Amino acid sequence: MAPENETAVGAEPAVPGSAPGGASPPDLLPKGESLLRLEGIGKSFGSVRALMDINLDIPAGLVTALVGDNGAGKSTMIKAISGISEPNEGAFYWKGQPVHIRHPKDATELGIATVYQDLALADNLDIVQNVFLGRELRKHFLLDEGAMEHRAKQALADLSVVTVRSIRQLVGSLSGGQRQAVAVARSVMQNAQLVIMDEPTAALGVTQTAMVIDLIKQLAARGVAVLVVSHNLTDVFAMADRIGVLYLGHIAGVGNTSDLDLQEVLELITTGGATHGA
Amino acid sequence: MEPESQPLAPLAPPHVEPSLVAFSRSRLKELRNGEVGVVPVLVGLVVLAIIFQIQDSAFLSAGNLTNLLVQGAVFILLGMAEVFVLVLGEIDLSTGFVAGIGAVITCELAGYPHNLPWWICVLAGLAATTAIGILQGTLITRLGLPSFVVTLAGLLGWEGVLIYLIQNAGGSNGGTIPITNNVLNDIVNGNLSVTAGWIVVGVIVVTFSIFIARRDGYRRANGLTASPPILTAFKIAGLVIVGAGVTLICNTNRGSLAELRGIPWVILLVLATLGAWTFLLGRTRFGRYLYAIGGNAEAARRAGINLRRVRTTAFALSGLTSGAAGIVFASRLGSISTDIDGGTLVLYAVAAAVIGGASLFGGRGKMVHALLGGIVIAAIYNGMGLLGLGAAEQDMVTALVLIAAVTVDSVARKGRTST
Questions:
Q1: Are B240 and B209 in contact (CB under 8 A)?
Q2: What is the reported pLDDT for B35?
Q3: Given an 8 Å threshold on Cβ–Cβ distance, is B33 in contact with A173?
Q4: Distance, CA of A236 to CA of A221 (rounded, Å)
Q5: Which of A123, A153, A166 lies at the smallest CB-CB distance from B26?
Q6: Alpha-carbon distance A22 to A132, whole Å?
Q7: CB-hemisphere CA count at 13 Å for B185?
Q8: Is B285 in contact with A157 (Cβ distance < 8 A)?
Q9: Which among A62, A109, A67 has a CA at the least distance from the CA of A219?
Q10: Rounded distance, CA B393 to CA B384, Å?
Q11: B385-392 long-range contacts, Cβ below 8 Å, gap at least 24?
C-alpha cells in the first residue's frame, strides 16, 4: 500500500500544449532545483544485484548524463525511473515528495517521458500525427488537425528544429536527427518535466549528432530535466551539465561536467575509480 | 476524456502562400520517394478503357458503363471491408462467405415464411456479419492467432454454415433462397428517376465542393499546410465533371425494348459507404490508430493505444461491410444460393484493395483505393466478357493486373525506405 504522504505532483490531466503556442508548462521547477531524487535505489534479479544504493539528483533545466560500460546498470536504471521495472529498495522523491513509480503510467502521470533508442515512431504517419499519437486533440469528437499542426509546428520551432521541409512530411522520409527531434517534440507535447533519452546520438552522423545535441540543450533550456544515457563520451561532454558514472550497479562518481575531464570519467567507467577513489 | 482543444491563435511567423509550382515540386518529390497514391491505378484504368474500346465500341457505351459500375459494386464493397484489415497489416480471407451469410439471413427473413420488413432483415444480416467479425477479431487479438489462419478457417467454416442455413431455411428452394422483397431487389435493379438523379448528385457535389473549398481556405488562412488555390479549383472541377458524367451516363436510356434510365440505387449505396468509411479513417482517432498500428504497432502500444480494441473493431467493420456486399450480391442475382463462390470473391476483394493502392504490408490504404480497384476488376470482367473471352482469360488477366499492382506497391516501398 502506498504511504499516506505519497503525492502525484504534476499529475494534472495532460493538456498537450495548452499554453499558447506550446510555451513552457507553468509548473516547471527553477533551473538547478532537484526534480527527481533517487535515494538508495537498488534492484536485484534473483541473486544478481543489478543496482545497489543509487543516490542521484536529477535537477530541472539541466542535462544529466549517465555513462557506464555495458552491464553497468544503465538500462536497469532507465527501466526503474520510467516505471517498467520497480526497484526493490530505496525511494524516489519528485519535487521533494516521496513517490512510487510502479508502472509506466505512474511515470507518465508524474511528467516523465522516455525516448527510447528506437524512437517508437510510425513511419507511415506524418510529423504532426506522430507528435500527437495517442493524445490527439479533438473538436466535436473529430480530430482537430489545425490545432495539432499549429502546436507541433510551434514545438519544433521552440526546439530550433528548422530543417524539416514540411510538417506534413511522413516520418519515414526524415533523417535520424529529425526523427529524434520528432520524438522529443512528442515528449514536450506531453508536458514532460523529465525526459529520459536512451543513446540519442547512437548511429548518427556528425551533422546529425550536432543537431541532436543542440536539441537536447534546447530542451533543458526550456526548464525540462533531461537524463541522457550514452556510450559516447565526446557527445556527453558536449551536451551534459552533470555526469554520473555507473560501475557494476553502483554510482562510481557524480559531478559537474566542468569539474571533470574525459580521462577521469573514462577511468571511472573502466575501473570504478579503484585507482582514484570515487 | 481529454478536453476539447482551444481555438487557434494565429501563428506568428508569416507563411509563404503555397504556389502551384512549389506544390507540384513537392508532389513530384513524393512520387519519386514512392508516394505514388492513386496515379498507377488511374493510368491503368485509362489504358484498359482504351484497349477495350478499340476492341469493342460497346465498351464505353452508356449502358455498358452503368452495368460496369453495378458489377463493380460487390468488388468495391468487399474491397472496402478488406481495407480495414489490410491497413493493420492483417488480412481477412473470410469476407466472401461472411458476405454470403449476411445475404442468406437477410433473404431468409424477408421471404416466406417470415416476411419481415426489409430493414429488419438488413439489420439482422449486418448484425450477424458484424458479430462474425467481432468473433474472428477476438480470436486474433485475445489468443494472438494469425489473422491469416483464423480467417482461413472462417473461409471454410462460414461456407459450411452458409450451406447449412440454406438447406434448413424455410424459404429455400433447391439450395436457393429467392428474394421476394421489392426493396431488396431494387437495391441493384431499381433506379432513381432522371430528375431525382440530377438532384441527388447535385446536392452531393455542391456539399463536397463547399466542404473542400472551406477546408482548404481555412487551412490557407491559418497558415497550415495546404494545397494552392488552383488545386482546390481543380479538385472541385474534377468532382463536378465526375458527378455530371456519371449522372449523364446513367440517365441515358440503356434499355433495348423498354426505356431504362436513371442512377441505380446501389451506386448511391457505394458512395455513402465510401463517404462514411473515409470519414471514419481520416477524421477520427480510431482511423488514426488503425494507421499507427499498421505502421508501427510497438509505437502505438507505447503511445497508450488499446491495440486489441482497435484491431477487433477493424475486423468487426470488415464483417459489417462484407454483410452489405453480400446483400448487394444477392440483390443483383435476385437470390442467394449455395453456389456463391466466396473463395473467389475474397480474392477479388483483396485484389481490388491492392490494385487500388492499399498496401499488403500494412499502414497504407484508403477506401477510395477499393473503389478504384473494384472498378478495374469490373472493367476487366466486363470488357473481356464483351470480347467473348471466358473465365480462363479473365482470371489470367486479373492475375497479371494484381501482380502489376503489388509490384508497384513493392517498388514504391523500396523507394520510400531507400531515401
A1: yes
A2: 60
A3: yes
A4: 17
A5: A166
A6: 13
A7: 9
A8: no
A9: A62
A10: 8
A11: B386/B52, B386/B55, B386/B56, B386/B58, B386/B59, B386/B64, B387/B52, B387/B55, B387/B56
The span from the first CA to the last CA of chain B, in angstroms, equals: 39
Q: Say which residues have a Cβ less than 8 Å from residue A88's Cβ, sequence separation at least 6.
A: A42, A43, A44
- From CA A19, how far away is CA B24, in angstroms rounded? 36
Q: How far is B233 from chain A (nearest CA, A)?
A: 21
Q: Which residues pair with B136 in a beta bridge?
A: none
Residue A17 has pLDDT above 70, yes or no: no
Give the confidence band of A112 by pLDDT, cuts at 50, 70, 90. Answer: very high
Tell me whether A84 touches chain B (CB under 8 Å).
Answer: no
Residue of A133, A143, A147 lying closest to B283 (CB–CB): A143
Residue B200 Cα distances to B55, B241, B383, angstroms? 35, 15, 29
Strands across the sheet with A34-45, in order?
A48-59, A34-45, A89-94, A97-99
SS (H, E, C) chain A: CCCCCCCCCCCCCCCCCCCHHHCCCCCCCCCCCEEEEEEEEEEEECCEEEEEEEEEEEECCCEEEEEECCCCCHHHHHHHHCCCCCCCEEEEEECCEEECCCCHHHHHHHCEEEECCCCCCCCCCEHHHHHCCCCCCEECCEECHHHHHHHHHHHHHHCCCCCCCCCCCEHHHCCHHHHHHHHHHHHHHCCCCEEEEECCCCCCCHHHHHHHHHHHHHHHHCCCEEEEECCCHHHHHHHCCEEEEEECCEEEEEEEHHHCCHHHHHHHHHHCCCCCCC
Of A50, A126, A37, A49, the closest CA to residue A90 belongs to A37
Which three three-digit cell numbers place residue B155? Answer: 473461409
pLDDT in tens, A226-259: 999 988 899 999 999 999 999 988 888 898 998 9
* DSSP result, B365-401: --HHHHHHHHHHHHHHHHHHHHTT--HHHHHHHHHHH
Per-residue cell: B119? 430493414
User: For residues B275 and A59, what is the distance between their CA atoms, to the nearest angstrom?
Assistant: 52
Dihedral pair phi/psi, residue A73, rounded to 5°:
115, 10
Q: CA-to-CA distance for B151 and B143, rounded, in angstroms? A: 14
Is A139 touching B (CB cutoff 8 A)? Answer: yes
Rounded to the nearest integer, the mean pLDDT of chain B is 88
Grid cell in block for residue B398: 486479373
| Residue B259 three-state SS | coil
Cα–Cα dist B375/B344, whole Å: 17
Tell whether B222 lies on the interface with A, counting CB pairs under 8 A.
Answer: yes
User: Which residues have C-beta within 8 Å of that of residue B348, sequence separation ≥ 6?
Assistant: B75, B78, B79, B377, B398
Using DSSP's 3-state secondary structure scheme, residue B337 falls into strand
Q: pLDDT at residue A8 above 80?
A: no
| Chain A residues lying within 8 Å of B13, measured CB to CB | 157
Q: What is the model's pTM?
A: 0.86
Q: Where are the alpha helices (DSSP H) in B222-341?
A: 229-251, 265-283, 285-295, 297-302, 307-333
DSSP letter (8 states) at residue B124: H
Phi and psi at residue A199, to the nearest 5°: 45, 60
What is the rounded distance in angstroms from the CA atom of residue A164 to the CA atom of residue B19?
Answer: 18
C-alpha cell of B262?
436513371
ipTM of the complex: 0.85
How many residue pairs from chains A and B have C-beta atoms closer than 8 A? 111
